[in-house]
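Quick one: co-fold with 1-O-alpha-D-glucopyranosyl-D-fructose.
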Amino acid sequence: MEQLWWQTAVVYHIYPRSFRDSDGDGFGDLKGIIEKLDYLQFLGVDVIWLGPVYESPNDDNGYDISDYYQIMEEFGTMEDWELLRNEIHLRGMKIMMDIVLNHTSDEHAWFVQSKQPGDNPYRDYYYWRDSNEGLEPNNWESFFGGPAWEYDDDAKAFYLHLFSRKQPDLNWANPSVRQEMYDMMRFWLDKGVDGLRLDAVNLLSKPDGLPNSELTSIDKKYAPCGHLVANGHEIHGIFHEMNREVFSRYPIFTVAEMAGVSAEEGLLYTDPIRQELDSIICFEHMDVDNGPNGRWETVPFQLTTFKRILSNWQRTLHGSGWFGLYLNNHDQPRVVSRWGNDTEYREESAKMFATCIQMMQGTPYIYQGEEIGMTNVQFDDISKYRDVETLNYYRIETEERGRNSADVMRDIYLKSRDNARTLMQWDESPNAGFGIGTPWIEVNPNFNDVNVKSALNNPNSILHYYRKLIHLRKRYEVIVYGDYVLLLEEHPDVFAYKRTLRDETLIVVTNFSEQEQIVEIKEPVLQQELLVTNYPDNGENMDRMQLRPFEARVYLCKQKETFK
Ligand code: TEU
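Sure, here it is.
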């Protein structure tokens, strides 16, 4: 496989609204990010992924774009963005923009135009359909709850929105839509952007005729349609064209966010021979605690399932495709609260998860606050939540399905996206040093204990551990290019694997439980060195280990065979 710059890179993911507010208006902004670039450089990351910063009415915090060529007022100006780009580049880092191709805002000029009667070229930019005897054109349910169709009085028709009603889906079968989007991406790439994160991008090709979903939802009203709209029949053709028209003309890195994708499909999207995309962020490993009725229903985390899924991706993409390694982002609850222990073992479990995911093959993504072990939040009232998906869920469950509020709040505590969107915790000053204004969302009350300033002062902090992991990736090629073998496959509490490149082997052992675990790893090695661990080294070799709660160890070994 050809070696490329982004294969050794570590990405830091910024949710601009919550990162740092420089002007006191209560919203994070571009100048705020500039203030923190030295910190990110110190952490050692290579690429900064900026959540969407384009003009937007913020129904879905910037994922509803009304103008792709303007910067959102709350975040600053185009000059601020150019300064941010320059400051990132000056520090030897790169900038990745978040691009939303599947939908625009309903306030985008194309959508406003598309409602007009008569001969109107914009009508076909979206999915406008007549009503089906007064009902929606089909039974699809939006990913954010309720019908995927909204009736518009001016247009006298329904339009499709897989996400919120303020995010109408674009019709990618229309060549003008595709050209507009290619122009837009080239605009940003010509401005010196180094990478693109493509939002929900395997949804671009819808099935012909938009057929009903055969699934049923709990109340039989609308039915999930993800399986019909993901990986549609034209999708590979679209990416091949996009690659020819855009990506292949720049020395950039692309990562596609794709739900409902198997490892085998992931390989089709990312195999360089096919000239589509460079890498993929999948959902399969994050969905393991979702119940049969979707993500709001939580079932117990099964480590064996999690291991099987990640191992399958590791093996399938090795040597051809490329994987995005993550356990946290702006759509997911914080993993330390979700599958770890965010009280007694917060530090241990945060470091253990980082070790487990970052020693695999792929590009690691660190989501803001993950590096200090930020946790989920439990606001006492729904009025303190901001996420459109969470608010829709609360309304539908309490008003339409008649569930009691306390039960619904429990689901929200576990899965709300706002768990990850509270303010970045910089120090122990009011609002954790986010800014002096009244913030758009409340701070997590634990910021006195969990913040960057105290983490910087403590050499054993999660933050310093992350720095170490990042440095190891730069130093040992086996972490980047080694092959992958799962060890202790059936163990219910320990995730262990082996990476090998030439004469070097890395053995990664992580305890996902609060109990001690005794495990033995018998490998024919000549020498072994404990590269990193989240507990004091007790001198054990890997042929007999007594792992403490959430303990993680990484051994670097020289293989015996190579010394024959
Ligand atoms: O997410 C796409 C996606 O699949 C999500 O809808 C995911 O299933 C959901 O967030 C889980 O709750 C992307 C963005 O990351 C997300 O923030 C946006 O809301 C969404 O696209 C629409 O643009």
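If it helps, The chain has three domains: 5-104+174-376+445-466, 109-160, 481-562.
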